[in-house]
UniProtKB/TrEMBL annotation:
InterPro entries named among the record's database cross-references: Luciferase (IPR048273), Luciferase_dom (IPR040841)
Identification of the protein by name: Luciferase domain-containing protein
Start and end residues of each stretch annotated as Disordered: 1-32
Domain Luciferase as annotated: residue spans: 83-146
Species this chain originates from: Frankia nepalensis
Length: 160
């Protein structure tokens, strides 16, 4: 299960910090875009719950597995590695867990970067903050891929 091909990201990459905490320093999401992203995360990923991140800076909203166990072989975010599949920061950027093929797509198309502590046991990539409705659609696609990786399940289609 890999995510659909992403379009290339337009414009220059945002500046990010080189160390922990790993933050996006330029090109934040407009507040209404971040609000839409948090609302989508809170309602469109069955069997999950949102809450304060266990690892990120204050204000980060995380998605946690709630009703499903972590899929066999999936490595999620520290500290537990089996519960938090991602979080959105106050600037709109996200840290999330993805399989290697999806990471490669994200990096190749300019949508994000690896976390400074990235390793086999720290499977964390940054998705740059969505700036527009079109970029919000990309964030949904990447979050959906993280969800499928974490749960081993397809997300049920949203009802109108």
């Amino acid at each position: 299960m890999t995510m659909p091909a992403l379009p290339p990201r337009t414009g220059p990459r945002p500046r990010t910090g080189p160390a922990v905490p790993h933050e996006q320093l330029t090109q934040p999401s407009p507040p209404h875009v971040r609000e839409q992203l948090v609302r989508w995360m809170s309602t469109q990923l069955p069997g999950t719950r949102t809450g304060e991140s266990e690892i990120s800076l204050p204000g980060a909203v995380a998605v946690f597995l709630d009703e499903f166990p972590c899929a066999e072989g999936a490595v999620l975010l520290p500290p537990r590695l089996d519960a938090e599949l991602g979080h959105v920061h106050v600037d709109g950027s996200l840290h999330l867990a993805l399989p290697l093929a999806d990471q490669a797509e994200l990096l190749a198309k300019g949508w994000g970067e690896r976390h400074p502590l990235y390793s086999p046991s720290v499977n964390v990539v940054m998705l740059y903050a969505p700036r527009t409705a079109e970029e919000l659609d990309v964030a949904h696609s990447v979050l959906d891929a993280s969800y499928r990786y974490a749960t081993g399940r397809e997300r049920a289609p949203a009802h109108p």
